[in-house]
Design a protein that fits this description.
- The chain has 1242 residues and is of the alpha+beta class.
- The protein has seven domains: 20-132 and 144-210, Rossmann fold (3-Layer(aba) Sandwich), CATH 3.40.50; 212-405 and 416-453, no CATH class; 454-549, Tetratricopeptide repeat domain (Serine Threonine Protein Phosphatase 5, Tetratricopeptide repeat), CATH 1.25.40.10; 556-611 and 630-635 and 705-764, abc- transporter (atp binding component) like domain (Coagulation Factor XIII, Chain A, domain 1), CATH 2.70.50.60; 768-871 and 896-923, Immunoglobulin-like, CATH 2.60.40; 926-1032, Immunoglobulins (Immunoglobulin-like), CATH 2.60.40; 1036-1071 and 1088-1149 and 1208-1233, Immunoglobulins (Immunoglobulin-like).
- The protein is 28% helix and 29% strand.
- It is built from 24 helices and 56 strands.
- Strands 8, 10, 12, 16, 18, 19 and 20 form a seven-stranded mixed β-sheet that branches. Strands 22, 24, 28, 29, 33, 34 and 35 form a seven-stranded mixed β-sheet that branches.
- Helix 10 runs parallel beside helix 13, helix 11 (354-373) runs antiparallel to helix 13 and helix 13 runs antiparallel to helix 15 (431-451).
- The longest helix is centred in the N-terminal third of the chain and has 38 residues, at 174-211.
- It is elongated and about 180 Å long.
- Residues 1002-1229 form the TRAPPC10/Trs130 C-terminal domain.
- Keywords: Golgi apparatus, Transport.
- It is found in: Golgi apparatus.
């Protein structure tokens, strides 16, 4: 077929077609109105309500007004819609009755008969009214309405709306415009009605025809032309979506028939499409309709490519009208793929290369068409839609190959104006031109794929380029594209493509003499299970052949271990991976050899890294090893040929360890933290060009063994295919396994990182001695067992070695007849037991140790006793065994317990060190003891309170109180029980009366003693307990008596009535020497006196003190001297009221020296006396007395601060003043008040 003939056929541009409307009657009248009618008709859109429930649409109506001819009316069986007249109009401006009857009516009847004959009912009569027609013949002129009525009665019996009046159409008036609007609305409505009716009838006929497709003789080409007529009408009405639907339905119907044919269901009309393809001119998209192909379809002579090309060109035109050019590219790709499949299904004979030419031309034609309707910016932004066509054009060229220039020339006739044909003709003209065009297409497709991020597709194009270069004998360029493709296959886990591509890479590398790369790839292929055994052996032999060469190379070829063998497991023997120096630690590696044959390794080396942080005597590492069970590290493996991204790119996980900073002096913890041990793996930069170090790598990085590293070595090992075990012996130290290297002749296989990290330790440890209590807490005063633990470390305990413990009085070591030492191994197994020999002297206790090997544990127990301090004078300082001065342990309050704590330090000399070991034990005193002095007149009593603050129940026995300085003094016990129970958190009170013969000493030195024992032990376990204290100013100096007298004439006191309070202060003893020195002297040589201050107050608010509540008394310092004071008080309540509180204090003038002697005994808790009650601060006469304490100054605070000597008050010591009325009560009667109550009665 000659392609130039396409230019000679008439072309129908459907966009210029309009619905045909015929015009009969007065042609001159119509011609004068044509322009206005044609312009105004499409201005207003109309709603077109469709049948079958289809959505209504707004359309603009246009029309092609033609003169009425009977030839235009459709004949029976004519299915052409484009030439179908949808409306018929009769124009007249007749206003003369005679003229209407003579000519117009007859003409109208002929017009109506023609329409009726052809079954057309879509018509309208337009009567035009103008002023000019009225003036022509005034005699015969009738009113316009009468002419219109006649026409309606003659022609529009039941359709009166089919006659429309147009008034003054050429004038610019409102009446004229209204008339035009009415006419246009009527025309649009009639046109839509005609469309709906005629298209509906056409669709019904078309549907009926489609339903007959199973009948013999049905032709798809005939049906195609019918449904395309409907598409043309929709396109004519600018309903492009509906037009596209018609072509899509035809596309789907034809596709289904082809698929049915492939399944064995044939149709007779498909025979024409099975004819051999003789024309492969490609798509023609620059014309709205390819009339040549349409005619061939109409004649039933079209080939499969003709039908598909024409159908797609129509779809392309409509999609561009719909502004969806990118859908064209998508449909074009589907078309190209489907056509190739349909040609195979229909078994159509195609000349070799013709189909590829058709694909190539079609791709370029679509691209050319898209470029013509889009600007460059849109093309660049949407290259993801067009890149598939570039790739398809490239693929068509690849399949086409490199033909002889004249191979297709006899059937191709190129159009010089069409660039796709030019390109194809030029490409087929010579091999060089073909290669140039092929490379242009390939690189264009690759660049577009890369620009839109479709790297897989780009690398697939690159792989075909590599095959092209290999055929051209250019392996260097081919390898680059193959490596890029291999990178995609490996990262995504495509096992078979990886194997195939690696073989191609190996071929390139061998041609390029890239020895290391070729050996690396050969090793990968030798371990690839996708290859046959013979192929694997071939590549393994390639490696072994190279290793057998004795070359003069200065360095060996380094390859990745992962391609040769995989480290699957690591075991430590013993499993703890930590032994002491002298013991044997073995490291067993399990290697899975990937080679198909056994390989002899001259040397297998594991490099180890010394861990500085764990060196020295710090003991064993806390590094967390990822082990399935102790002593075993299992290494994660991935497929040797390809694996998913999770196995290749996930990388190592965090490996954390604890780090501690301890004080070098006492080994106390200063700080702790977390450190990452594998930062060298986590923080390294992953270059996009260098893949991660896994067996999946295309070309694993070359990493050599670190120079100067310590190594574990094994010589002459043969690795069989599968798992192999290799055992190393570890040197002393703390090491981490870092790398693995296998040497085979001139080739080294290196595993650059062993991960997860495996660490072992052959350690050397200093001996350590610890002392700890067997039970908490350690109680002072009772025998307590402490545990001595000796970790021998690297030291061998020999016969005669002994521990020298310094003796102290405060914590003696109790002798024991059976003290046994246990010796256990590092795994806590009992090795032996031995009885210890303990010898004590005045200052040192020597403990002879049994012989013990290194890195064993020696344990024994001793009983110690911490003496409870009694408060006596401190002895001279002692010295420890190391010469240090022993400081007497001081008791202190512990925040976690109510018991008082005592720290006892001991010094131990050890045979393995020239330095002494200082150890400390904390004991807790189970008791708190208090004492108090009680008086009853001149009689004196001493009370001692013992409080149990521990959690143990005790029994107290032989409670005694003695006085150390005065033998004549007798302390009579008032305690009836010889043994008392002292439960935890409870107290026991003991009381003694002090008896004397001559005079009571002013100072007493007392010692309280008792024996105590836990209730769980027998009487032999009783231990002594002493408590010393001192009592000063014991003698009673003054007695105070008070009496309350009722008012005159009353027998009893009454509430609210003043009563008399008489206070009598009596001196009981002569002044002592110390007392004279303290008190002030009078200026004369008369009797010695002292000043006292009394105070009456009532803190319970039972009494109101009226008048002066305090005052000064000048008291002679002679025995039986008496002073009385009268004070008025008022009882505030009735009942038995206690007497008001009466205080007596020393008043010291400003000349007396301040003598404040604090009580040296801190255990006395009742030695402070409050001088004034709080209520006294509010009394007006004692407002100057403010301060609280043992010594009170009478005066302002400002004077005191300036250093001016002021009079002051000093309280008496407990027992110096005895108040006889301290606990007395007096009966107070209620007041006799008369109450008046008013009661009103009604």
């Amino acid at each position: 077929t000659h392609m130039a003939g396409q230019e000679e056929k008439p072309i129908i541009y459907t966009m210029e077609n309009k619905p045909i409307v015929t015009c009969a009657g007065d042609q001159a009248l119509f011609t004068s109105l044509y322009t206005s009618l044609a312009q105004q008709l499409p201005r207003e859109p109309m709603e077109w309500r469709r049948t079958y429930g289809r959505a209504p649409k707004m359309i603009l109506l246009e029309a092609n007004f033609v003169q009425f001819k009977e030839e235009l009316l459709p004949k029976e069986g004519n299915k052409a819609l484009l030439t179908f007249p949808f409306l018929h109009i009769y124009w007249t401006d007749c206003c003369d009755t005679e003229m209407y009857k003579s000519s117009v009516k007859e003409d109208m009847m002929r017009w109506q008969n023609s329409l009726r004959t052809h079954g057309s009912s879509d018509w309208v009569i337009i009567v035009v009214e103008t002023n000019d027609t009225k003036k022509k013949n005034k005699t015969n002129i009738l009113p316009r309405s009468s002419i219109v009525d006649k026409i309606r009665s003659d022609f529009c019996n039941k359709q009166s709306d089919r006659c429309v009046v147009l008034s003054d159409p050429l004038k610019d008036s409102s009446r004229s415009q209204e008339s035009w609007n009415s006419l246009l609305l009527k025309l649009r409505t009639l046109l839509l009605m005609s469309f709906t009716k005629n298209l509906g009838r056409f669709e019904d006929e078309m549907r009926t025809l489609r339903e007959k497709r199973t009948q013999p003789g049905w032709s798809f080409c005939e049906y195609f032309m019918v449904q395309e007529e409907l598409a043309f009408v929709f396109e004519m009405l600018q309903q492009f979506e509906d037009a596209l639907v018609q072509y899509d339905e035809l596309d789907a119907l034809f596709t289904q028939y082809v698929l049915n044919f492939g399944a064995g269901d044939t149709a007779n009309w498909l025979g024409s499409f099975c004819a051999p393809v003789r024309n492969w001119s490609g798509l023609l998209l620059r014309r709205p309709i390819d009339m040549e192909k349409r005619d061939s379809i109409q004649r039933g002579e079209a080939s499969l490519l003709d039908l598909r090309s024409y159908l797609f060109s129509r779809q392309c035109t409509l999609l561009i009208f719909l502004q969806r050019p990118w859908e064209v590219t998508q449909r074009a790709l589907e078309l190209l793929h489907n056509c190739v499949q349909e040609l195979r299904l229909l078994e159509v004979q195609v000349l070799e290369g013709a189909l590829d030419c058709w694909v190539f031309l079609s791709c370029l034609e679509v691209l050319h068409r898209i470029e013509g309707c889009c600007d460059p910016a849109q093309l660049a932004a949407n290259c993801s839609h067009t890149v598939g066509l570039w790739a398809a054009a490239h693929t068509g060229t690849v399949h086409h190959g490199v033909p002889e220039p004249s191979g297709l020339d006899f059937t191709l006739h190129f159009n010089s104006l069409q660039s796709p044909y030019k390109k194809l003709k030029e490409a087929l003209s010579s091999v060089e031109a073909f290669e140039r065009h092929y490379l242009e297409l390939s690189h264009a497709a690759m660049e577009m794929y890369q620009a839109i991020g479709r790297l897989r597709s780009a690398r697939l194009v690159g792989k075909s380029l590599a095959e092209f270069y290999m055929r051209k004998g250019d392996p260097e360029r081919a390898e680059t594209f193959l490596q890029e493709a291999l990178k995609s296959y490996v990262s995504e886990g495509w096992s078979l493509p990886v194997t195939h591509t690696r073989r191609q890479v190996a071929e390139c590398q061998k041609l390029l003499s890239k020895t290391e790369d070729y050996l690396q790839t050969s090793a990968l292929l030798a371990g690839d299970v996708n290859l046959t055994t013979d192929e694997r052996k071939h590549f393994c032999q390639e490696i072994l052949s190279f290793t057998g060469k004795s070359g003069d190379q200065s360095h060996k070829v380094t390859l990745s271990m992962g391609v040769f063998a995989q480290l699957t497991q690591l075991k430590f023997h013993p499993a703890a991976a930590s032994v002491h120096s002298g013991a044997v630690l073995q490291v067993e590696l399990t290697l899975r050899c990937l080679m198909p044959v056994s390989v002899r390794i001259q040397q297998l080396v594991a490099s180890i890294h010394f861990e500085v942080d764990h060196g020295g005597t710090h003991g064993r590492s806390k590094g967390a090893q990822r082990r399935t069970h102790p002593g075993t590290v299992v290494f994660r493996q991935s497929n040797s040929s390809a694996g998913p991204p999770s196995s290749a790119g996930a990388g190592p996980s965090l490996e954390l360890d604890e780090i501690q900073d301890r004080s070098p002096s006492d080994n106390s913890l200063n700080s702790t933290g977390v450190i990452c041990k594998n930062t060298h793996l986590l923080m390294r930069r992953h270059d996009s060009n260098s893949p991660p170090d896994t067996p999946n790598c295309i070309s694993p990085p070359t990493v050599g063994i670190k120079e100067g590293a310590q190594m574990l070595k094994v010589q002459d090992v043969t690795l069989e295919p599968g798992n192999n075990s290799i055992t190393f012996t570890a040197p002393p130290g703390t090491y981490t396994l870092r790398q693995l290297c296998a040497t085979v002749g001139e080739v080294q296989f290196i595993l650059p990182h062993i991960y997860p990290s495996a660490q072992y330790e052959v350690y050397s440890q200093e001996p350590q001695l610890t002392v700890e209590p067997l039970s908490e807490p350690l109680l002072a005063g009772l025998p307590q067992k402490v545990k001595f633990t000796l970790l021998t470390g690297h030291y061998t305990v020999k016969k005669g070695d002994a521990l020298q413990l310094s003796n102290t009085e405060t914590m003696p070591i109790l002798p024991s007849t059976s003290c046994t030492a246990r010796i256990s191994s590092p795994t806590s197994e009992l090795v032996g037991e031995s009885t210890l020999s303990i010898q004590s002297s005045e200052k040192v206790t020597s403990i002879s140790l049994p012989p013990a090997p290194p890195y064993h544990t020696l344990e024994f127990q001793l009983e110690v006793l911490c003496i409870i301090p009694s408060g006596a004078d401190r002895p001279a300082n002692e010295r420890l065994t190391n010469g240090e001065v022993r400081h007497r342990p001081r008791s202190y309050s512990h925040p976690d317990t109510p018991m008082t704590a005592i720290d006892q330090r001991m010094s131990i000399d050890c045979p393995w060190s020239i330095y002494s070991t200082l150890l400390a034990l904390t004991f807790y005193i189970p008791f708190k003891t208090k004492h108090s002095l009680l008086s009853a007149g001149n009689r004196k009593y001493i009370q001692v309170c013992v409080q149990n603050v521990s959690d143990v129940n005790f029994a107290l026995a032989e409670v005694k109180l003695t006085e150390k300085q005065h033998a004549s003094l007798e302390l009579q016990s008032l305690n009836t029980k010889t043994q008392q129970l002292l439960c935890c958190k409870h107290s026991v009170f003991c009381l003694w009366e002090v008896r004397w013969k001559d005079d009571l000493p002013s100072c007493l030195q007392c010692v309280f003693s008792a024996n105590f024992s836990p209730l769980s032990q027998d009487i032999s376990a009783y231990k002594p307990f002493h408590y010393q204290f001192q009592l000063e100013r014991v003698t009673t100096l003054y007695s105070v008596k008070a009496e309350i007298f009722p008012p005159a004439g009353e027998q009893r006191c009454r509430s609210g009535v003043l009563c008399g309070l008489e206070v009598c202060i009596t001196r009981l003893t002569e002044p002592a020497e110390g007392e004279i020195a303290e008190d002030s002297k009078t200026e004369t040589d008369g009797p010695k006196t002292t000043k006292l201050m009394y105070e009456v107050a009532d803190s319970s608010s039972n009494w109101a003190v009226c008048g002066k509540s305090s005052g000064m008394v000048l008291m002679p310092m002679t025995a039986n001297a008496t002073h009385k004071v009268q004070i008025e008080v008022m009882p505030l309540f009735a009942g038995h009221l206690p007497f008001p509180k009466i205080k007596v204090l020393k008043y010291l003038p400003h000349t007396a020296a301040v003598a404040i002697q604090p009580d040296p005994d801190s255990c006395v808790e009742n030695d402070s006396l409050s001088l004034l009650d709080k209520t006294l601060d509010d009394q007006g006469d004692t407002a100057s007395i403010r301060s609280r304490g043992s010594v009170h100054s009478v005066g302002s605070g400002d004077q005191q601060q300036k250093g001016v000597a002021m009079p002051r008050l000093e309280p008496f010591s407990p027992g110096q003043v005895f108040n006889h009325s301290h606990a007395c009560q007096v009966l107070v009667l209620p007041a006799t008040d008369d109450h008046i109550m008013e009661v009103n009665a009604t």
